[in-house]
Every structure is written in C-alpha cells, then in structure tokens.
Amino acid sequence: MKIKPPLQLLALILLSCAVISIAGMIAKHTVCQAAGQFQDQPAITIPFLLLQDNTVLYAAHDEETSDQETNLTVQLPVYLLASLTTVMENEQPETITPHPVEESYFDDALFIGDSRTEGMAIYGRLGKADYFASSGMTVFNVLTKETQDINFSTTDLPSLLDSKQYGKIYIMLGINELGYAMESIMQKYENILKDIVSAQPNAKIILCANIYVTKEKSAAVSWLSWENINRLNNNIAALADNKTIFYLDANELFCDDSGYMDPAKTGDGVHPYATGYQEWAGWLQGHGI
Amino acid sequence: MTFSDVTFLFRFLPLFLIIYYLTPPNYRNWPLLLGSLLFYYIGVQEHPWMLALLLFTALFTWGMGILINALARGRKIALGITLVLLFGCLLAFKYGGVFSGSSLLLPLGISFYTFQTAAYIIDVYRQRITAERSLPCYLTAVLMFPKLISGPLVSYGELAHQLRYRNYNLRNFDRGLRDFILGLGLKVLLANQIGGLWKDIQVIGFDSISAPLAWMGLIAYSLQLYFDFCGYSIMAVGLGRMLGFHLPDNFDHPYAARSMSDFWRRWHITLGRWFRDYLYIPLGGSRQGQSKHIRNLLIVWLATGIWHGSTGNFLLWGLFLFALIASEKLWIGEKLARHRLLSHLYMFFAITLSWLFFAITNLGNIGIYLGQLFTGFDFGNSATLDFIHYGKEYGLLLLTGIILAMPGPAKLWQRMRHSLFGTIILLLIFWLSIYCLSAGLNDPFMYFSF
Which of A161, B239, B250, B259 could form a Cys-Cys staple with B233, CB 3.0–4.6 A? Predict the structure, then answer.
C-alpha cells in the first residue's frame, strides 16, 4: 500500500503510537503491576519510563524472591549474626563516640553515594579521599553503574573495591529509590553491604543518614516525606554493629527545628548549596570514627 | 495543559483533530471555539474564575467594538473606558501583590489576551478594520488555543478573512505537523536539557561558581530561553497550519543580530510589533525630534520590562535595553553596522548580560552573579573542578544550541524537511521528546506566568 507523501509522517506516527501503546499496556499489566509501579501513568509512557530506569524489574524480582524466602528459615547476614552472639554473650556493643580528626584521616577513605555525594566531591573534598558518586545512584545500580573521579577513571564499584584497600568507606544511599518498596531497598542495601565487607575486610564502614528535604519538597513528592526518609534512616541505622559498621547522621547541620531541611540552605529543596558541602566536610572532619 | 504535555499530545490533540476534520468546513469555527474553551478550562480548572474573566474580556471588547463602530461621537471615550478596564485589570493582577503584600494569582494568558483584545479595539477605533459583528467568529479569534496562552499576537485584520475561509489541504497539514514536531524537539530536547545547567548553578549557589561556569550558565540560560519560546512559537504556528490558519512567526534568528535594535526585530516579533504599532508610533515614534524620540524609546522599553514581570529586576532589564538601544540610535549604531566581528562581540555581552537581569529576580543575587562573572578566578580550591565537570556534562549540548541558533542550519532544514531523511529525523525527534516528557525531565514553559 503506497501512502501519499504528505501523509507518510502522520501514518508513521500513528503506527508507532499503536505499537508503543500496546507494548506499554502489556508492561503495565504485568511487570509494573507486580512491582506496584506506574499504575497511574498512561500506557504510552511506560516503555520510556522503563527505558530510563529499569529498577522496576529488579524491584519486582526482589519481591518475588523475598516472598520465597519467608517460607525458608530466615537467614541473617553474617555481621548481624555476629552482633547477636555478642549480645547473647552479655557483651554490650561498644558505643563509638565520633571525634575530631585531621584531614589526612580521609586519605584512605572512600565515599559512595548519589548526587549529594557528587556535590561533596566537587565542593567538599577531604584529604586524598576517593568519591564514587553519581546523580541517580541507587542501591539497585550501585554495583553496575560506572563513574569516575580525580583519582580513578571510569570504573564500576566492584572493580574499584578490588583495586585498592580503603581504611574507611562512607555510604550514603537510599533517597533516590524511596519510591520503591522499603523491603526491596533494604534487601538490596544489605546485599551490597555484605559485598563491600567481604571485598574490604579491614575497612570501617560508615553508613550515613540521608539528609531530609525541605517541607515544600516533601509536600510535592509523596515518597520524600519526612516519615519515609526517617524510616529509611532508621532501617539503615539498624545495620550498624559499632564494631566495623557504624552509623553517622549529619542532619543537625542542615535541618531546622521542624526536622525538615532548612530552605535557606538549599536552592532546590534537596541539594545543599556549595557552601553547605564545605560545611559538611568540616562536620565530617569533626566526627571521625 | 501545555503543548509539550503527554495529555495534550495523545489525548486532546488527536481527539480534537478528528472532530475538527469531521465537521463540515463551513462550521469548523465551532469545534475550534469549543475545543479552545475546553483547553483553557483544563489549564485553569482549579481556578475556574479565570475562564469567566477571559470570556468577560472577550465579550466586553466585542461589544465595545460594535459600539465604537456605530458611534459618531464619543468614540474616544468608549475607547478610553475599554483600555482603562483592560489594562487596569492586567496591572491589578500583575502588580496587586506588590502593594498589598499578598499576590493575586495571575490568570492564565492574561498578558497575551489583554494585548490581543486591546489591539482589536484600537484597530476598530482607528478604522483599520470594521468591528466583528459575529460573536462566534470573534470568540474563535480571541480564544483559539494555538495562540491563546502565549501568543503569537495576531492582529485581527490578519485573522478576519481566515475566520471565514480557510484553505485545507494535506500538504499544509503535513507542513504544520512537521513544524509542530520540530518545535516540540527544540523545546523538550534542547531547551529543557540545556536549562539543566542553569538549574544546577542555582543549586550550587551563585557565590560558589567560578567565572567560566558563570559565563557558561548565562549562555545556557540564553539558549534555554530562546529555544523554549522559539520552540513554543513554532509549535503554535504549526498547529495553526494544521487547522488551516497562517499565523505569524515570532523569531528570526535573534542571536545572529548585530545590534540590540535589530535583536528586538527578531525576538518575540509579534510583541515588538504590538509595542511599535500601539505605543511607539502613537507617541510619535522617531518623527518628533530627538528628545521625544528618546522619551518614546524609554517609555516603550520600560513598558516591555513591566510586561515581562512585576519585580524590580524587570524594570532594570527594560532600562538596560533602553540604554543599549538609545546608544545605538545616537552613537554606535553605524559603527556596529560596519564592523561585523565587533558587532557580534558586542551582542554576545549585550545579550548575556541583559538576560542576567531577566533571569534573576533578587537584585542582591544579580550583584553576586555579576561579581562572579568578572572576578570568579580564585582557582585555589576544589571548586575549580566546577566548569570542567559541567563542561563535560553540558558542553556538547551548549555547542549544539549555539550552532542551531545560527541561520545556516535552518536553511539546511528547510531543504531537508520534506525528504525521507527529514521524515525519519522528525519521527526520531518526536519519540525522543516523548521519552524526555515521560521520564519527567520537564520544565514549566517560561513565558507561562505572563
């Protein structure tokens, strides 16, 4: 069938619309429904949403596996098992008090995180630390995403962890993926922690609390509510054993009495100003572990 | 609902086009009028009084047009009353907040439809056109959704004939569709993405950016503003063409201009035309001696500043433009015309610095940014990475923007537009844009609060 030239573009658009809508509808009612995502989005946008961020596929998969695991004996991660045994042996877990350190303390440090850590890498660098950070970094892609920094060229995290031994590893992740099921997030978080601990047996791991967002931002984006971020941070804190895994919360630096991020400290409700990152670096130096 | 919106593109527009073309040609103003009412209502559904205001403005000016046409005496008074009410209303909404402390919500499109209807009534008064007797025709002209919210400003004379007779053919429709997609791409793929750099700089905080990054930021803002509004205007004209209308262009490669005076004949052309026809020339233009000429320029440029925004920086912006244009008219115009390189260098600074006053509302922040532009060379701390970091991220985009702002690519596109290659490119642009829109990389259209 030959289509008249003036109609060719319209015909192509209509055809591609039909194909993409059908693909979107199929995805919406299978994979996305399983993950509980994108149910309110038009079908035609679904293929593009999946292209941009296929976390939905991992989240769906994780929920399936976690369903299976509840039928088996619950397997605790090794380090949690260790801290349980110490409690059972009537040893009090040590409480570590953060203390001021020299900047050189950070020479063997690694910071892993998202765009806020990226900001630290640009505006609040400490010593000769390495920063493995990228906008959009989540627990779902941190092991596969590649990025670079001053001291290393484009690489992924497992390769970086194989290439050198760090003394301390700071991890700040979670806020980008809060739209997904908390169980999914924490499952992935624990797996990554396990991987890092086994790759870096001599490193202190410092899990960092996610900084809250402004009240305005929380109101605009439902999964960035204070309660949700708080729940995430508490779950992360529960992973600390105060022997090799610690928890650090810098929210006092950015939040006001309401508990939300102070609007005066941010240009977009989420990221601190450059001066904020400089303050954060100073705070970290005052809270060495 | 804007043109670059999934709901508009996949729900409203296809449905509207089907109904429009199923309607017999002589009655097609009706679906256009009703569709436009629906379009506006969807945009203001949380504040339906805005629709009432729009309808009242249209009905009122239609009635006054017939009245002025019919009157032998008292025409000037009728005109005066109409204009006072029209502009009084506009100023009250725009500036009410400045004096009362609380800001009134600005009705969608009010800056445009006020100017649109004012032009109509002035033209009727001047007897340039006869008053439109048909209310449906008049309402269609004022409300038609391709131009209702953000222009182009079209004189009634240009529309009158088209309201009654439009030439429908597939080639025109196809051309309109191609322009529409091009405009969509300029807005979503270029403007929105380049704008990311300006957003990033606001997140960093103006006091922490280096000079190179500050200049990159201004260039990014300049390109974003241009492609955003130019893209929208091309979409509007394309939509009009798809419906059988010929609407005027709003942009003619303004960044290729060699003087600010020339720039404003190429940027938002229909607005410049409005100020020229309904303010500058009635004041006497350049024909009543030099001091009156300068006075008229000052009035027009202050008015332009005020039209764009109600905060102090827009006044500053208007004054800055006036200073440049007056200087060109009095002293440096000839020199710029003679020396190409010099004029482009002059325009680089004139354009970027004028947009600085436009982009930042807080005067203190303008000062900080200016400071960084010219003194941000402290390369002793880690912030030196900033322009390299952002250069890597946005360099290619900025370069693409600069190239596409020049006249050459447009000429090339005109030759390619209807070829198979052009068709494939447009298909790609369309789906890439939908990808960006779906993934939420969206931006409010900049001229929206006007």
Answer: B250
